[in-house]
Sequence to fold (79 residues):
Amino acid sequence: MEISIHSHSGDTAEGLKPCPFCGGNEIVKLKLYGCGSLPSVFYECKKCGACGSKANDVESAEKMWNERKGEENGNGRTL
Fold:
């Protein structure tokens, strides 16, 4: 298994929201590579360790990190 870590702070080109638990802005993108499988991508807050859901691509992982209960999801539906 290989782990790739990309760290960034504050408002990023990826448009990540702060951590929903602690408000931290230092979010780490992690990619896990297994044997012969697609990578698992997810985001983690460096301040409190909260993790987003795992996805097969960066765009899906970013979307899952940014989803907040009670907010509209862009399709006029509340999460």
About this structure: DSSP finds one helix and three strands in the chain. The radius of gyration is 13 Å. The mean pLDDT is 78. The CA atoms of residues 38 and 66 lie 22 Å apart.
